[in-house]
Structures are given as structure tokens and as C-alpha cells.
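Form 7-S
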Amino acid sequence: MMIDIDDGVMKVRVLDEEVSFNLWEAMKHPKEKGVCFKMDATEETILDVEKQVMKPSPLKHVLTNALDDIDSNEEQEIKECLKKLDAFEEVSPLEAKIEELKNE
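Output:
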């Protein structure tokens, strides 16, 4: 099989048979009107939704920028807390035990 495109004509040859397609004519006359535009509208909608999904939440924005306003004492305290958290052993959800809280 051989495909040859020359001057907008695509020729497909298999053994001794050949079929020619005029690409310019095929592009001018789609079988269904508006088919080409559906993809454009869908792609635009997907991009809009993607922007909304990727936008950080206000809480994330505040927490992320909060680190810019801390002093050295607060930074040291955060580092100590992180060390303590890292020292804990990870418990898988299957091993986790739930204790019932009692009112006193």
C-alpha cells in the first residue's frame, strides 16, 4: 500500500489498484453541516472548565501565602511541628482504630 499526496490529491495504491481523493473538495463540502464547528465549541468549553478547576481555592491561596509573613520564631516552631509529625508512624486505613468519645 502506498499513499501519495500531490497538489491536494491523495492517491492510495494497493497492488495495481488506485483510488484518488481530492482533499480540497472534501474539505469544502463536509457531509454534515456544522460538524467542524462542534469540535471548536467543545474544545473552548473544555478549556473554560479546566481554568476553573485549576484555579486555587481561596483557602489554599491564603495558606500558601501565609508563609511569606512569618518571622523566624514562627518558622522555627513550624519546623519543630513538622519534625514531630514526621516522627509518627504512618497507619494504613485498614489498621486504623476508632475510639468512641464519651461525655463526662
